[in-house]
Design brief:
The complex is a heterodimer of chains A (560) and B (788).
Chain A lengths: L5 E5 L5 E6 L7 H10 L7 E4 L6 E8 L2 E7 L5 H19 L5 H6 L1 H11 E2 L2 E2 L4 H4 L11 H8 L23 H4 L18 E14 L5 E15 L6 E6 L10 H8 E6 L5 H7 L2 E3 L4 E11 L22 E8 L5 E7 L5 H5 L32 E10 L6 E7 L3 E5 L4 E6 L9 E8 L5 H8 L13 H10 L8 H15 L5 E9 L7 E7 L14 E17 L1
Parallel strand pairs in A: 8-23
Antiparallel strand pairs in A: 1-2, 1-5, 3-4, 4-5, 6-7, 8-9, 9-13, 10-12, 10-22, 11-13, 14-15, 15-20, 16-19, 16-21, 17-20, 18-19, 21-23
Helix pairs in contact in A: 2-4
Chain B lengths: L3 H8 L5 H8 L11 H9 L3 H16 L10 H6 L9 H11 L4 H14 L5 H13 L6 H12 L4 H17 L4 H12 L4 H14 L11 H7 L5 H18 L3 E6 L4 H9 L12 E6 L2 H9 L9 H14 L5 H10 L5 H17 L19 H14 L5 H15 L4 H17 L2 H14 L5 H17 L5 H10 L6 H13 L1 H4 L5 H10 L6 H32 L2 H19 L1 H5 L6 H14 L4 H13 L7 H7 L23 H5 L27 H8 L3 H17 L1 H14 L1 H6 L3 H15 L3 H19 L1
Antiparallel strand pairs in B: 1-2
Helix pairs in contact in B: 3-4, 4-6, 6-8, 7-8, 8-9, 8-10, 9-10, 9-11, 10-11, 10-12, 11-12, 11-37, 12-14, 14-17, 17-18, 17-19, 19-20, 20-22, 21-22, 22-23, 22-24, 23-24, 24-26, 25-26, 26-29, 28-29, 28-32, 29-32, 29-33, 37-38
The chains are: A alpha+beta (560), B mainly alpha (788).
Protein name (chain B): Clathrin/coatomer adaptor adaptin-like N-terminal domain-containing protein
InterPro entries (chain B): AP3_beta, AP_beta, ARM-like, ARM-type_fold, Clathrin/coatomer_adapt-like_N
GO cellular component, one term (chain B): AP-3 adaptor complex
């Protein structure tokens, strides 16, 4: 009933690259794919196909341009299947390295086959933890490590690590005696050995901010995740404390403070919930390698921000960049203008964008467990704004953008998805702000009018397709006025009205900043509990690193 | 929670995929296809490296697209099983499972070797062998598999026991006749002390025999305590199982408890003890009493709300929604909202589930309003669900929130996307419908503002919704109709015009002489030729209605006057009838004949216009009305048809249609019933029909007796066997336990007794609700203490 029947993976050109059937006789991928592609993109993750034999519920997921399919003939919990697909992607990535590529899968069918067979036994999902799979999946003895190793380690992601045997797939072959009893910790593979012991904490926050036309934030959330990389021998027991950076003060002990700031937290199963609930610290035995430790969200407006009234300016959000959009400009109202500015409070931050020390080296120095502030005076100084992009979606009626004038950066019109994309290099983005002005062109049906504009002829053409009400009304209005100017006025008004339908209603801003978190959250300390840990000598002092990153992927939306 | 691969992709954005791909194509790619004999040679080699290389090639061929024939390697591959290298075994097993069905005879040759591995010293090897053996799809070997599972069930290593649990599923699939044995194994495994074994056992149980709830009783409490430690899939299976179990084993009881008294009442009670009881009846409330075992389950799954797995969170919510919506469901709200930050594929499913919970109790989602604001980048499916959530929340939220929601909806009603406009306007309509008169008026004025928009699509949608609103309470909206009618001068959208004309027509009957309808008709008829067919049809209908109203009032007046003076009037009317009858067919001739009332003239004129309309549908309609109204004195039939009371349109929330689906089921998402394997929750078991709660005590006992895990297996397996033989045996056993703990059985009286006691104590001692609840809890504690 809740068994997975099959797993199909397609590459970015929709070529089948993996076809694994667990049980039964599910419809083949060749019949499912066209039915899936029938739906308009973005396609729903669950599609019911009553015409196949047997009638099929088709679950799909896209990861790294690969399309994952799982057809089921019976009603199952949909999230179970989708989570399963995500786990498959995670597991494959653990073994094949990130990002997942079609060529990696086709070149390593033996590993992939084992992973897929182990993650669900006879279709019953039974192992969700990629790291634990390392105990059961044979990647082969030493000979092949070189080959696999090159696949496994993504270039440039962690250049310092390649020397050590800590990388993926550098694991020495498992000797039966060692793995005999299996790992005591179900999510951690057994017998972890690393020559250089390292711990990395990556805090990533994704922004989701909506601003009203007045510039007042309607909602502002930061969705955070803590990605943790552990390369420590034995079974370490870690204690990670976060601090709120002053927010939520006066809320009792630190745990309460923290919980008042980061809400709706979800954890990897390794985190001890009791410690979190009592002290507000994360105490856990990590899986080996990289994993998602925790997910949370922060309401950047604070809990008691007024919903409608009040003048909470967007400045309070402390965002590194802000966008305004003005529409209906120009003589015929066919222009709109996007202005990107730096809120005053954050101008100092991006000034020193060159500061590159993003990983504050900690632990090896003076006090164990406390971070040596690598960039002095707080992270904000070392933050760097990157990938500054503004996207303005335009209505389908817009035929072309006749004129784009960015004061800095590059703008281009993408007719396929009907939007203007404007990229600004961060070095050009100063406190003065940057401006983009565009002129839109309407649909071809009133080509006469557009032609008139293009030729620079002032509007003398009468619009015959004009809707009646406008003329009707204007006749009313202009009964008293002289008839001579009537036509021209009338025309420009209708044109403005028409152009209003071509104006964008919103714009979105994307960027990423390293070294800064919208929530102000900080890693306070990361301790290895030497008493509880096993297989880790007391003299071992792992290298600890922390990285902060705030990303907005079309996350800041300004309406107009 | 976002999966780690997605977080990584955020962190390493700058990575160049193409470069990576180019580099990646390097070392591993050139596994040049070798000719078949050469691969065979590799397989036959003595070095591990060559054998492994050969196997890899075979597996790659097997998965390649299009698949290459690999069956020919079967004997060669099987031969490698004899090599001592551990690295080759998983690949051989994989090959075996894949090909066994196609060549069962060859596959059978391997069974012996695998059986040998079943008693290997390494538990991983044993587990893998068990897994492989049960995976071979040859029904012939079902008995061997069953034996192997039996051996695995009593294995010392939990790894093997877990494999055995999962093998049970495959064993049943292979051959259904092994079911009795398999159920026996599962009963043992369900009692396993190792949580991941128990978790796998629950998964298997759900697959194999979900209806054998009697196997669960002894394991119930322990499973509840272990659920936190299980892996996600085990948790999912357990929650699903226990939700059904709870419905079947814990009858829904209500206890009559005293409502918390006000001080006055207390004083009164103090001084006037002897007041007759029936007066106090009002002071009692029906309070739901939850079985302590059910409470155990509900509280033990609460930590799972912080799981990273969205399916688990929804499963817990489902358990709360269907088992204890009043007390526990609140805890699940926040975690459900947390699902909105998951990847888009999960987000959509999560929203469907949130909607389902929201339909049940919208008020608890009000604080999370801001999470439901729509973003322009969202796909339409998600947008629609969010609109619906906003409208559901609307009547329950405060003024500020309502303002925000309306502003949000208004913003999207100006969008360029026609679907989005329609959706948002309809959402405003639903808001208006669901709320009080004052807010409803605000929504209406918001909609009325939209009429002047240049976007004809928006206007059409808005008028449609306004029409619905007006129909709901016609008497309050006379003025609105007049306002709308004024707009007929300017409106262009034909559907909007048609809607307004229809509305005007509906008010003819109620307003009588004051109606503006006749005037509206007069103006409209002038522009008849320029209207769309949709509007023309409504004009004709309006004419019929106006004329009908006119006839009715005249008839009423004539009846009145008829009592006074009959003779003359009647004659004249008869004449008129004749005239009209003729007039219908040759109106032109008669028009000048008799100076009639302007309305009559108007009607005749409209019918004439209709007669020469190109659309035959319209001509038909006109003919119908003409026939209906042919005799102005008998208009009963026409009134019945034209003024039939229209049902009030209720714009239902679209999610309402999916309400019957279970939370977290696929049916809920696709909105289609009749999916195969749809499972439904049973009704609550009736009072007194539930299994004895003592059945659940037993598992604890078993643990008491045999502390060592290994022995535990053996002993409890035997006891399980007894239990399977018949319920009587269990009863007998229980009795003996009772004797042993007779004190306990005294304390733990029958449920009915307990209730009686509580009731009587409630009446006599005037104990408050909390007190009596505490009492029962204490009792429960006592009991469990004794058992331990």
């Amino acid at each position: 009933m809740s068994a997975i029947e099959a797993l199909y993976i397609f590459d970015e050109h929709n070529n089948l690259i993996l076809n694994h059937t667990y049980i039964g006789r599910p419809p083949p991928p060749s019949t499912l794919l066209p039915l899936y592609l029938q739906h308009a993109s973005p396609r729903p993750s669950l599609i019911y196909l009553p015409t196949t034999n047997p009638p099929t519920l088709l679950y799909s997921m896209i990861q790294d341009n690969l399309l994952f399919f799982s057809p089921l003939s019976s009603d199952t919990e949909p999230l179970l299947v989708l989570e399963f697909l995500h786990r498959v992607a995670d597991a494959l990535e653990e073994f094949l390295g990130s990002p997942l590529l079609a060529s990696k899968i086709t070149a390593n069918y033996d590993v992939v086959a084992q992973v897929i067979a182990e993650i669900a036994d006879g279709g019953v999902p039974c192992q969700g933890e990629a790291n634990a799979l390392r105990d059961v999946v044979e990647t082969g003895p030493g000979v092949l490590n070189n080959l696999l190793g090159k696949v496994g380690l993504p270039g440039g992601s962690a250049p310092g690590l390649q020397g050590g045997p800590s990388g993926r797939l550098h694991t020495p072959p498992l000797r039966p005696a060692e793995t005999a009893q299996g790992s005591a910790v179900p999510w951690r593979r057994s017998n972890v050995r690393h020559t250089s012991n390292e711990l990395y904490v990556d805090l990533v926050e994704t922004l989701s901010v909506t601003l009203a036309p007045s510039g007042r934030p309607l909602s502002a959330f930061a969705y955070g995740s803590i990605a943790f990389t552990s390369k420590v021998s034995g079974v370490p027991d870690l204690l990670l404390s976060l601090s709120t950076g002053g927010k939520g003060g006066g809320m009792g002990n630190r745990g309460d403070q923290l919980r008042s700031v980061i809400e709706r937290v979800v954890f990897h199963p390794c985190v001890r919930l009791n410690r979190w609930n009592s002290d507000g610290v994360l105490s856990f035995v990590p899986p080996d390698g990289r994993f998602a430790l925790c997910g949370y969200e922060v309401d950047l407006l604070g809990p008691d921000a007024p919903l409608t009234a009040g003048k909470t300016a967007a400045n309070n959000l402390n965002l590194p960049a802000m966008v305004e959009i003005t529409t209906g400009l120009g003589s015929s109202g066919s222009d709109f203008e996007v202005r990107m500015t730096q809120p005053s409070s954050s101008s100092s931050r991006a000034g020193s964008a060159a500061a590159a020390s993003l990983q504050s080296n900690l632990g090896s120095g003076s006090r164990p467990g406390s971070f040596r502030a690598g960039s002095g005076g707080g992270e904000s100084k070392g933050s760097a704004l990157e990938n500054l992009t503004v996207r303005v979606p335009l209505p389908a009626g817009v035929r072309n953008i006749s004129d784009m004038r960015p004061s800095k950066g590059e703008a281009h019109w993408n007719p396929a998805d009907g939007s203007v994309e404007w990229k600004v290099p961060s070095k050009d983005f100063g406190p003065a702000g940057v401006v983009l002005r565009c002129t839109v062109q309407g649909p071809l049906s009133d080509a006469d009018e557009a032609g008139g504009m293009l030729n620079g002829v002032t509007a003398t053409t009468y619009d015959y397709t004009d809707d009646e009400p406008a003329t009707y009304q204007s006749q009313h209005d202009s009964d008293s006025t002289a008839g001579g100017t009537n036509g021209a006025q009338d025309n420009s008004r209708t044109r403005a009205q028409k152009n209003r339908a071509l104006m964008p209603t919103s714009t979105t801003l994307s960027f990423s900043i390293k070294g800064w978190l919208a929530s102000g959250l900080k890693v306070e300390s990361l301790l290895v509990d030497t008493k509880k840990s096993r297989g880790l000598g007391p003299e071992v002092k792992p290298y600890k690193g922390v990285k902060y990153l705030t990303v907005s992927r079309d996350g800041i939306e300004v309406r107009c | 929670m976002e999966s780690i691969s997605r977080i990584s992709s955020l962190l390493e954005t700058a990575r160049d995929l193409t470069l990576e791909a180019a580099r990646d194509a390097g070392p591993r790619k050139p596994s040049r296809p070798l000719p078949v004999p050469q691969i065979k040679k590799l397989l036959d080699s003595r070095t591990e490296r060559d054998v492994l290389d050969g196997l890899r090639r075979v597996i790659s061929m097997q998965y390649a697209n299009p698949p290459q024939p690999t069956l020919t390697f079967f004997p060669a591959v099987l031969k490698t099983l004899s090599t001592p290298y551990p690295s080759t075994r998983p690949l051989v097993y994989n090959y075996l499972i894949h090909h066994a069905e196609q060549d069962p005879d060859t596959a059978l040759l391997s069974i012996n070797t695998i059986q040998k591995s079943l008693s290997d010293s390494n538990p991983r090897v044993r587990a893998m062998a068990l897994k492989t053996m049960s995976g071979i799809r040859i029904p012939m070997i079902s008995q061997i598999v069953s034996l192997a599972v039996k051996k695995g069930v009593s294995d010392l290593s939990p790894l093997v026991r877990k494999a055995a649990a999962l093998a049970c599923v495959k064993c049943i699939r292979l051959d259904d006749t092994t079911r009795p044995q398999v159920e026996e194994y599962l009963a043992t495994l369900l009692l396993d002390k190792q949580y991941y074994v128990a978790g796998a056992a629950v998964q298997a149980f759900i697959e194999v025999c979900p209806e054998r709830l009697d196997l669960i009783h002894p394991a119930y409490r322990r499973l509840c305590k272990m659920v936190v430690d299980m892996d996600e899939w085990g948790q999912l299976a357990l929650i699903r199982l226990m939700t059904v179990y709870a419905r079947k084993c814990f009858p829904r009881r209500t206890k009559r408890a005293r409502r918390a008294q006000t001080r006055e009442e207390k004083e009164k009670g103090f001084y006037e003890d002897l007041e007759p009881k029936d007066e106090e009846e009002a002071g009692y409330d029906d309070v739901e009493v939850t079985d302590p075992d059910l409470v155990l389950f509900l509280t033990s799954i609460q930590p799972l709300l912080q799981s990273r797995n969205s399916a688990v969170i929804v499963a817990v919510t489902r358990a709360y929604l269907y088992l204890s919506p009043t007390t526990h469901l609140l805890h699940a709200t926040g975690p459900l909202i947390a699902l909105l930050r998951s990847p888009q594929d999960i987000q959509q499913v999560a929203l469907h589930n949130i909607l389902q919970v929201c339909l049940n109790d919208p008020s608890q989602f009000v604080p999370y309003l801001l999470h439901f604001l729509i973003r322009s980048t969202e796909p339409p499916q998600i947008r629609g669900l969010k609109f619906e959530l906003l409208t559901l929340i609307f009547p329950h939220s405060g003024k500020e929130c309502q303002d925000l929601i309306l502003a949000e909806l208004e913003h999207f009603s100006h969008s360029h996307d026609a679907d989005l406009v329609g959706e948002s306007v309809r959402a405003i309509g639903r808001c208006a419908q669901a709320s009080l008169a004052r807010t409803s008026r605000r929504c209406l004025s918001l909609l009325l503002k939209q009429i002047h928009s240049a976007d004809s699509n928006l206007v059409g949608e808005a008028i449609e919704v306004i029409r619905h609103l007006i129909q709901r309470s016609p008497n309050e909206h006379r003025k609105t109709v007049i306002r709308l009618a004024k707009n007929l001068d300017t409106l262009t959208s034909s559907s909007a015009r048609a809607s307004i004309i229809w509305l005007v027509g509906e008010f003819v009957g109620t307003e009588g002489e004051d109606s503006i309808a006749a005037d509206v008709l007069r103006i409209l008829v002038k522009g008849y030729a320029a209207e769309a067919d949709e509007v023309r049809a409504q004009i004709i209908l309006l004419a019929a209605k106006v004329y009908l109203g006119f006839c009715n009032t005249r008839n009423a007046a004539s009846k009145k006057s008829a009592t006074d003076s009959r003779s003359v009037e009647e004659e004249s009317y008869e004449q008129m009838d004749d005239a009209n009858n003729n007039g219908d067919f040759n109106g032109d001739a008669l028009a000048g004949d008799e100076p009639t009332h302007p309305i009559e003239l108007l009607y005749n004129y409209t019918m004439l216009l209709a007669r020469y309309t190109p659309s035959y549908d319209l001509r038909d309609r006109a003919r119908l009305y003409r026939a209906l109204l042919a005799v102005p004195t008998s208009t009963e039939l026409a009134s019945l048809i034209l003024w039939a009371p229209k049902p009030v349109p209720v714009a239902q929330s679209p999610g309402e249609a999916r309400r019957k689906f279970l939370l977290g089921s696929a049916g809920l998402i696709v909105g289609a019933g009749g999916l195969q394997g749809t499972y439904t929750l049973p009704e609550w078991v009736g009072e007194g029909e539930e299994p004895d709660s003592k059945l659940r005590d037993e598992g604890e006992e078993a643990r008491e007796y045999v502390p060592v895990a290994g022995r535990d297996k053996v002993v409890s397996a035997g006891s399980r066997l007894d239990e399977a033989l018949g319920a009587d045996a269990v009863r007998a056993k229980n009795k003996s336990l009772d004797d042993w703990l007779d004190e306990e059985s005294e304390g733990e009286s029958e449920e009915t007794e307990e209730e009686e006691e509580e009731e009587s104590s409630g009446e006599e001692e005037s104990g408050s609700e909390e007190e009596s609840e505490e009492e029962s809890e204490e009792e429960g504690d006592e009991r469990s203490g004794l058992v331990r």
